[in-house]
Specification:
CATH topology of the largest domain: Pseudouridine synthase
Largest sheet: 10 strands, mixed
Radius of gyration: 22 Å
Low-confidence stretches: none
Order of helices and strands: EHEEHEEEHEEEHEEEHEEHHEHEEEE
Strand content: 25-35%
CATH architecture of the largest domain: 2-Layer Sandwich
Number of strands: 19
CATH class of the largest domain: Alpha Beta
Number of helices: 8
Length: 301
């Protein structure tokens, strides 16, 4: 029972709920997710089972794609539709042209700085921010930089009602993006309070929603496992010859010329046919060498 499951998580479930249920369904304890989805968010949740749990740290680092909805004219304490309203400002009909909204979205593409919401799991001095928020304690939140690769809004979803306006957008980013905060930033750029009113994860790393199974489908049809090799194709990778493959299986430090990538590349996956053998990275103390970060040769694919 080894491999990667792409789950279409229902709203109302935590990521831990999914792991708990899958342990029972698959009758194995070695199950873990690769990055949480909030209970009110549905869509792609990538799960590692058995020996595939070795790659969870690499899958967590993959790009994410979301389809969200922003409501402008009202902000909340949680930055989503489930928190108390803290600010309002009436939005008039046809407040902005499509070109103005386009420009705002484009201004948020690239490396941006975000301040995590108070209602989030980011830790400050050993406590999660939402614990401070629930206690009514304000603390200084650390800023973080994330990369937004694309942000496209959908003009045909634009709806003005109840002195607000809402529209859908699709965003692809590096790990760590708070889409709730991005919705607030869209509103700020337009001069209005805003919040995220809906969210679905469409993709995580190489996996997309059309590959995902609901828990019911897994129970009824059985799990559709993907291999470690498939999951890691998003990383720089190469096919090892027989000599290098043998060295990699033994976790040997490789010379710079044995991996066809510059030593500035953070991670490189070494393959032998359809099997991912290991992830290598630049050696921390030897300037012309690569060191094994994680080996997978025990995985049966």
């Amino acid at each position: 029972m080894n491999g990667i499951l792409v789950v279409n998580k229902d709203k109302g479930m935590t990521s831990h709920d999914v792991v708990f249920k899958l342990r029972k369904i698959l009758q194995t304890k070695k199950v873990g997710h690769t990055g949480t989805l909030d209970p009110e968010v549905d869509g792609v949740l990538v799960i590692c089972v058995g020996a595939a749990t070795k790659v969870s740290q690499f899958l967590m680092a993959g790009t994410k794609t979301y389809r969200g909805e922003v409501t402008i004219g009202m902000s909340t304490e949680t930055e989503d539709a489930h928190g108390a309203v803290i600010d309002r400002k009436v939005v008039g009909k046809n407040q902005w042209t499509d070109e103005q909204i386009d420009a705002v979205c484009q201004s948020l593409v690239g490396r941006i700085t975000q301040i995590p919401p108070m209602y989030s799991a980011v830790k400050v001095k050993g406590k999660k921010l939402y614990e401070y928020a629930r206690a009514g304690i304000e603390v200084e939140r650390p800023t973080r930089e994330v990369d937004v690769f694309s942000l496209v809004w959908e003009p045909d979803t634009l709806i003005y009602e109840n002195d607000t306006v809402r529209f859908s957008f699709t965003v692809t980013s590096s790990k760590g993006l708070y889409v709730r905060t991005l919705a607030v930033q869209i509103g700020e750029a337009l001069g209005y309070p805003a919040h995220m009113s809906n969210l679905r994860r469409l993709g995580s790393g190489v996996f997309t929603l059309d590959q995902a199974q609901t828990l019911t489908q897994i129970i009824e049809n059985g799990p559709n496992f993907y291999s470690v090799a498939e999951a890691l194709r998003v990383y720089p990778h190469f096919q090892a010859n027989e000599h290098v493959a043998k060295l990699v299986r033994n976790g040997v430090v490789l010379r710079a010329n044995q991996i066809p990538f510059p030593l500035t590349t953070p991670e490189v996956v070494v393959y032998d046919g359809n099997q991912a053998l290991a992830v290598y990275g630049p050696h921390p103390t030897k300037p012309d060498a690569w060191k094994a970060i994680r080996g997978f040769q025990s995985e049966k694919e």
